[in-house]
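name: query_chain
kind: protein
chains: 1
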Amino acid sequence: MIVLFSAIIALCYSQPVARLTDKVPIDLNEGWNAFHSNRLLKGEPLYPPYNALTSNNYPPLSFYLNAGLAALLGDDLIAGRLVSFLSLLAVAAMLGACIAEMGGRGAEAMVMSLFFLAFIAMFAKHYIGMADPQWLAHAVQLSGLYLLLKSRNRGSLFYLAIFIMVVSGFIKQNLIVLPLAVFLWLFVSDRAASVRFLVTGLSAVCVFLFAFTMIHGLDFLRGLFLDYREWHLGAVAKAIDRQFNKLLAVLMFGVAGSVLLPQTGTFVLLQFYFVLACLWGAFISGGSGVDVNALFDIIVASIMIGGMLLRHADLMECRTQLQAGRFSMFLLAVLVVALAVSVPYEIVKAREFWKTRELARASVAEDIRYLSDIHGPAMCESLALCYWSGKKFEANDFMTREKIRAGVIERRKLLDLIESRYFSVIQINHDSGKSKRFDEVVNRSIDANYHIDRQTRYSGVFLVPNE
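structure:
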C-alpha cells in the first residue's frame, strides 16, 4: 500500500513541484497574497483603508513569513509557493504524528499520511504549492493538536499547544473548527481543562488582536472583521453537488468512524472535529469566491479517523480475527479505489502539462514584458501578472465588487477611474474582454472606454484606453 501510494504521489506531484518557480499563475489568489507581503517589504501599510478599492481580510502572520523569505529569494509569489508546498508536507507528517499519538501504529500513520498527499492531488491539485497560507495554517494548527495530545491536558506543553492553535488562526482566520472541537471534547471529558483551554485561548487572541492593532492600526480590525462576502444557500447546494462524489471516500471514513469507534477518549474529539468540519465547510461554501479549501478540515478529520479505524478494526466486536482482517482490507481497498479511478485522468493531465509547459512559460513571460513596457497604472484580474510586471495593486475585481455590493464604496469610485481612462492597461482573463467578477455596469464602462490591444492563450486579453 505504501509503495502504491508513493507511486501515485510521484505521478501527481511532478507537475506541482516543477511549476513552483514557473512565472505562470496557478490561481487568482496568488498575486493578491504576493502584493500584500511585498507591501511589508516596502514598508507600506499592510491593511488599506476600509473604503479603498483594495482590501486585506487575512491575518498578518503569513505575510510576515513570506516577506522574510522573499527578502532572500527576491520574489514574494515564489516564496509563498515554497512555504505552501513545504506546509502541505508538514500537514501530512503531523497527521501521521497525531495518529500515532492517539494509538495508531507506524503502518497506519504512514499509509494515511501518504493517502492524504495523494488525495489532495486528486481533489485540489491547484492548492499544491499555490501561494496561499491555508496549508501553513493547517500545519501549525495540527502541531498544536499533537502537543495537546502529548500533554495529556496538563503542564506547560498544554499551554504551548493552545498558544500554537491561536497562532494558526492569525495565519488563516477560517480555521476555527479544530479549536472548537477540542474545547467541546475537553468540556465533556475534563471540565477543568476546558476552562483553562478557553481562558488561555481567549487571552492569547486578545493579546494578538491588541498587538496587531497597535502595529497596523484600526484598518487591521476593519479588514479582519468587517470584510463582506455575499452568501447564498444555493451556493451551498452547488458546492455539495460538485464536491460530494470527490469527497465520498473520506466522508465514508468519517461516518464509519463516528459509528464504529468507541465513544471514549480522543475518538470523541475526532467525532466532534468531523461533524463540525462538515457543518462549517458547508456553511462557508455559500460565500462568494470561496474555494475548496473550505472543505480541507473535513479531509484532515477523516484522515485521522481512518487511521484509527485501521488500528481498531480488530476491536470492533468482530467474531474472528479473519473478519477483522477482512474489514481492514475493505478499508484499504476503499483508499485504493478512491485514488485509482483518477489515475488515468492524472496521466493525461501530466502529459498535457509537460507538453505545454514551455509554451505557457514563454507566453506568460511575453505578457509580463508587455505589461512592464506600458507606462502607468494597471488593473489585472490575474494579479500575479501585475505583480511580476512591477505594477501597483490599486484595484481588484473581486474584492472591489464585494465592497460595492456591500455599500462600503460607491460604484462611481471605480467608474470614474475607468471613464477617465486612469488605467493604462486592464487585463481580463476572458477572451470577450468582460470580467465575470465585475457587474454589467462596470463591464459596459470598460467596453466603452477601452479596446483590446493584445490577446493571448494563457492570460486572456489586455485592453488599452481608446484614443
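note: The mean pLDDT is 91.
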